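task queued by scheduler; priority normal; single chain, no ligands, no partner chains; default sampling; output format set to structure tokens
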Amino acid sequence: MIYLIALACVVGIATGQILFKLSAASLHESGSWFDPKTLVTLFLAFALYGITTIAWIWVLQKIELGKAYPLMALAFALVPMGSHFFLGERFQSQYFIGVAIIMLGIIVTVKS
């Protein structure tokens, strides 16, 4: 159960990064911090980060940081995948090889 909540934290952090990027794009497009689209997206990103941080603190009460923290490396895979699917960003094939190595490292670390 703890690892599922930790995983939810990672997904929340990754989603927050996508929302930050969307708010940056909205800010660039509108030129104003007070544009409703920019404000809503930025608020959602901050809210998600806040909730995720509180949940992460709860996770750290239950398990060691050394066991939980490797899961945060999943964000290095989830954020680019999200940017590919939601923002249309493209990556070279060697990028995905790097992501696979990160995933292997996470598996090895969590199982130790």
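post-processing summary
- The helical segments are 2-30, 36-62, 65-72, 75-87, 93-111.
- The two ends are 18 Å apart (CA to CA).
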